[in-house]
UniProtKB/TrEMBL annotation, chain A:
Membrane protein topology class: Peripheral membrane protein
Cell membrane as UniProt keyword: yes
Source species taxonomy: Bacteria, Bacillati, Bacillota, Bacilli, Bacillales
Subcellular location(s) of the protein: Cell membrane
UniProt protein name: Peptide/nickel transport system ATP-binding protein
Record-stated family: Belongs to the ABC transporter superfamily.
Cellular component terms per the entry's GO annotation: plasma membrane
Coiled-coil regions listed in the entry: none
UniProtKB/TrEMBL annotation, chain B:
Biological processes, Gene Ontology terms: peptide transport; transmembrane transport
InterPro entries registered for this protein in UniProt: AAA+_ATPase, ABC_transp_ATP-bind, ABC_transporter-like_ATP-bd, ABC_transporter-like_CS, Oligopep_ABC_C, P-loop_NTPase
Domain named ABC transporter: residues: 23-273
Pfam families from the UniProt entry: ABC_tran, oligo_HPY
GO molecular function: ATP binding; ATP hydrolysis activity
Similarity field: Belongs to the ABC transporter superfamily.
Name of the featured protein: Peptide/nickel transport system ATP-binding protein/oligopeptide transport system ATP-binding protein
Keywords: ATP-binding, Nucleotide-binding, Transport
Length: 330, 344
């Protein structure tokens, strides 16, 4: 891994200005870097801000949302300062994105070939016939059987797993340096999920991409990610290399997430559920945003929001329990 | 309780379970006709459920797992007669309900309820929570208005919500709370048997755990019998006593859960289990797991492969699998598998 990050996000804030002067702080002061060849997982429940983080990087935020602060550096280019036209060039070329539901991401009235060649012709300036040859090649790369026939088929003729393979083919078609995958396998069955995740890992190796993997599944994180960022209430609450985070969990929220998963190896009578629900982004509690659900809540948690601090090398946590150094959770 | 007492209690419980069969499904089939041509004649059948037999004992939870298109939801709907079976018998409390007329069936409906996957779609947004929970009582019983309200109030507290929530409307609740309302609605008639069709798959993990815990508590309190349909194998393992694995409308394997998860026999079950990403905290290598990677997709149930329907994805398929359909046979005590590897 080189020391120059592919992507550097600093103090990013994306707010949504709702009716009645409410402000939803969907992403609230997030900073992180992704290095070449690295898989970073962004984990959190619905409403934690993980997808908005990804969309902010792509600058696909629509009204009433607005990126109000921060810098997003990609190989020394400041993305937030680019014109809309230049950003369009970056999207697809340098950063590609895969979404959760391949059926809604693909256009149902165009053939697969149409949609892939459109990209290749736009971004790579290939001729029609060159683009078609390249498209077939791409379909083969992502393991689609009968690629020559599939290229003339429509999205509805394919299964969910095949559609997601098409999305991956489109994503890698312009050799991006960063691939953002937003819950890429959530809509798929487990056996297909395994195939798609393995394919993504393989493509990452082959094309030397960095991968930002957005997921809620800690099992997926454990098997595929190098580093993890756990999001809650629009902020990163814990960040560490995967093994470290799973073994030496610091934040009560991360601990709660791990305990609420039914485990295949262990038999427990009751799952350790986290009480309550994720607060809406326009109505976070004062102080620590997890304080309303935290089993370790103290007085100061309701008064001030803790800072993200580096407890050990590469292990960051946002929690008042560790204000004086502090030990492992138990 | 001491360990000895505990084991006696468990043994007694086991015996009770083996004695009392609540639901007995025999050779149930559900075929949907496929219409084609300008005359809309039936040109074939989609065999959603194809010759399935099993029993569920009183107080037990039977889990059914399978990928989308395996027929698990159709099976649940057929068992409640929300769909009519094409063939086979469904005995509920020793009464065959598979051929009952609509009116006759109504009598049994209050004993059999269902909780659906999507708590956003399954609750009428124009009814208050109170009305939603009272509705089954209005249809099925002759209780007075105040008695119904009383019952709804008791029920809402049982599922962990407040009495004041009865006046609210579904949109005021989160997904997990809505699923609690769906559960209250299903249980207010005091059913014996509840089919849970992917009840937690739309929920976040922390909320999923709350709902699973609630369902376990209610089962203990009310002596419920569950059929728990889900695609998530770890969730099914957590809640079930026995688990059946379905593939293309058939049962591939059925066994007590420990047996199924520790000693899977069918190559499909092995593939399913090893596809689940697991949390591994050990430094260095992967946890020692038998890796069976399944290739390809589930074939269309309208045009299933001959012989063993799993053979197109099976790493161990041989000639016999093409021609002959494997029957479900008992390999070990209570452990049934439908695979030619285990028939001589």
């Amino acid at each position: 891994m080189s020391n120059q990050p592919v992507l550097n996000v600093d103090s990013l804030k994306t707010y949504f200005y709702l009716d009645q002067d409410q402000v939803a702080k969907a992403v609230d002061d997030i900073s992180f870097s992704i290095y070449p060849g690295e898989t970073v997982a962004l984990v959190g429940e619905s409403g934690s801000g993980k997808s908005i983080t990804a969309l902010s990087i792509m600058q696909l935020i629509n009204k009433p949302g607005r990126i109000i602060n921060g810098t997003i550096l990609m190989n020394d280019t400041e993305l937030l300062k680019l014109s809309a036209k230049k950003m369009t060039k970056i999207r697809g070329n340098d950063i590609a994105m895969i979404f959760q539901e391949p059926m809604t991401a693909l256009n149902p009235v165009y053939t697969i070939g149409n949609q892939i060649t459109e990209m290749l012709r736009k971004h790579k300036n290939l001729s029609k016939s060159e683009a078609r040859i390249k498209a077939v090649e791409l379909l083969k790369t992502v393991g689609i059987p009968r690629a020559e026939e599939v290229i003339d088929e429509y999205p509805h003729q394919l299964s969910g797993g095949m559609r997601q393979r098409i999305m991956i083919a489109m994503a890698i078609s312009c050799d991006p340096t960063l691939l953002i995958a937003d819950e890429p396998t959530t809509a798929l069955d487990v056996t297909i999920q395994a195939q798609i995740l393995d394919l993504m890992a393989e493509m990452k190796e082959k094309f030397q991409m960095a991968l930002l993997l957005i997921t809620h599944d800690l099992g997926v994180v454990s098997e595929y990610a190098d580093r993890v960022m756990v999001m809650y209430g629009g902020q990163i609450v814990e960040q560490a290399p995967t093994k470290k985070l799973l073994r030496d969990t610091k934040h009560p929220y991360t601990k709660g997430l791990l305990d609420s998963l039914p485990n295949l190896d262990e038999e427990v009578d009751r799952l350790g559920a986290i009480k309550g629900a994720v607060p809406p982004a326009h109505d976070f509690p004062s102080g620590c945003r997890f304080s309303t659900r935290c089993p370790f809540v103290m007085d100061k948690c309701t008064q001030s929001n803790p800072e993200l601090q580096e407890l050990e090398k590469d292990h960051f946590v946002r929690c008042h329990l560790y204000d004086n150094g502090g030990d492992t959770l138990d | 309780m001491t360990n000895v007492e505990k084991s006696i209690v468990e043994e007694v419980k086991k015996e009770e379970i083996t004695k009392d069969v609540l639901v007995d499904v025999q050779n149930v089939k559900k075929y949907f006709p496929i219409k084609g041509g300008i005359l809309k004649r039936t040109v074939g059948h989609l065999k959603a459920v194809d010759d399935v037999s099993f029993q569920i004992h009183k107080g037990e939870t039977l889990g059914i797992v399978g990928e989308s298109g395996s027929g698990k939801s159709t099976l649940g709907r057929v068992m409640l007669r929300l769909l009519d079976p094409t063939d086979g018998t469904i005995n509920f409390n020793d009464v065959d309900i598979s051929q009952l007329k609509k009116k006759e069936m109504n009598e049994y409906r209050k004993d059999m309820q269902i909780v659906f996957q999507d708590p956003f779609a399954s609750l009428n947004s124009k009814m208050s929570v109170g009305e939603l929970i009272e509705e089954p009582l209005l249809v099925q019983t002759s209780l007075s208005r105040s008695e119904r309200q009383q019952k709804a109030a008791e029920m809402i507290e049982k599922v962990g919500l407040r009495r004041s929530d009865l006046q609210k409307y579904p949109h005021e609740f989160s997904g997990g709370q809505r699923q609690r309302i769906s559960i209250a609605r299903a249980l207010v008639l005091e059913p014996k048997f509840v089919i849970c069709d992917e009840p937690v798959s739309a929920l976040d993990v922390s909320i999923q755990a709350q709902v699973l815990n609630l369902m376990k508590d209610l089962q203990d309190d009310l002596g419920l019998t569950y059929l728990f349909i889900a695609h998530d194998l770890s969730v099914v393992k957590h809640i079930s006593d026995r688990v059946a694995v379905m593939y293309l409308g058939r049962i591939a394997e059925i066994a007590p859960k420990k047996e199924l998860y520790n000693n899977p026999l069918h190559p499909y079950t092995k593939g399913l289990l090893s596809s689940i990403p697991v949390i591994d905290t050990e430094e260095g290598g992967e946890k020692q797991r038998e890796r069976v990677k399944l290739t390809g997709d589930l074939p269309s149930p309208a045009n299933p492969p001959s012989g063993c329907t799993f053979r197109t994805r099976c790493p161990l398929a041989h000639d016999r699998c093409i021609t002959e359909r494997p029957e479900l046979v008992e390999k070990e005590d209570g452990h049934f598998v439908a695979c030619h590897l285990y028939t001589s």
